[in-house]
Amino acid sequence: MTLQPSGCPLRWVRVIDLHCHILPGIDDGPESIHESIRMAQAAVDAGTTTIACTSHVHPRYPTPPGVIHEAVRDLQGRLDALDVPLRVMPGGELSLELLPRMSDADLDMACLGDGDWLLVEMPFQGWPLRLAETLRDLEIRGYGVILAHPERAEAVQRAPDRMRDIMGRGPLVQVNAGSLTGEHGSGARRAAEALLRSGWVHFLASDAHSAGPWRPPGLGDGLDAAARVLRVEPDALRWMVEDGPRAVVEGRPVRPPRLTPSRTPRADAGRAPGVRRSPSRG
């Protein structure tokens, strides 16, 4: 397996991006189909093969899941006609505020790809007091939860260990690549690193909103930053960007390894260390 240096496209892995705002004219992502196509090409150039289209389902952007499905079909048709080798799949980034009002039919359409996992946004301000109750309710209704970018939440930045109780209730966690590279500020970077060291990060995604330079697609730099935190080589984190996301969108069992810092320092000169794994949670 040949590793790409930091900043280069990920060619040794078929990246599946579980969090991307690529659909046009729906939320704070691209305004036009032309911008969406530019984003798609930028994602392909960065090594991404599949994107879950996670438009906001939020009081500010109360996008019906059916609208997302229709926009995904239209975008895929445009990409196919232009020979852009990217697969787009439906999804949604769901706010905790709207979740209790969504029917099972709506939640089914908001799942990532063909699976039964929902991407749920952690609020930026305050701590969601009913989060544990919401997670329990969704589990009873048959849905898994992936918490989107908790490292960007002020409460988590102040006290990352506050996630400990939540993690015991079954959700998985997605961290933004841009948080690890400092794009979202030093607080988000420190929180992301703390969550990584605790073994509480399962997926790395772009949360892209444009073709660039602001919040572009691509996970290479973020993956390399995560590998440095864990003192491993980037290919040791393949599960975060390929194997795990593939299981999510294909509706297969999702059994994440517990990735924590290697006891052996990452050696850029010499043999690459592995990662310690704890038993699967699935």
Specify the CATH class. Alpha Beta
Number of domains: 1
| Helix content class | 25-40%
**Main beta sheet:** 6 strands, parallel
Total strand count, please?
A: 9
| CATH homology superfamily name | Metal-dependent hydrolases
**Can you give the mean pLDDT?**
90
Q: Do you know the CATH topology?
A: TIM Barrel
The 3D shape can be described as: globular
Strand proportion, as a percent range, falls in 5-15%
Count of alpha and pi helical runs? 10
- Give, in spatial order, the strands making up the sheet with the most strands: 3-5-6-7-8-9
Indicate the CATH architecture.
Alpha-Beta Barrel
Helix/strand order? EHEEHEEHEHEHHEHHEHH
Low-confidence stretches: 1-7, 269-282
**What structural class do helix, strand and pairing data support?**
alpha/beta
Cα radius of gyration in angstroms: 18 Å
What distance separates the N and C termini? Answer: 28 Å
Descriptive overview:
With 282 residues, the chain is an alpha/beta fold. The protein has one domain (15-250): Alpha-Beta Barrel (TIM Barrel). The protein is 34% helix and 14% strand. The chain has helices at 33-45, 65-81, 104-110, 131-140, 154-158, 163-167, 177-180, 186-197, 220-230, 238-250; strands spanning 15-20, 48-53, 56-57, 87-90, 93-95, 117-121, 144-148, 172-176, 203-205. The strands form two sheets. Strands 3-5-6-7-8-9 form a six-stranded parallel sheet. It has a three-stranded parallel sheet with strand order 1-2-4. Strand 5 (93-95), helix 3 (104-110) and strand 6 (117-121) form a beta-alpha-beta unit. The longest helix has 17 residues, at 65-81. The chain is globular and about 50 Å long. It starts with 14 loop residues before the first strand and ends in a 32-residue tail after the last helix. Mean pLDDT is 90; it is low at 1-7 and 269-282.
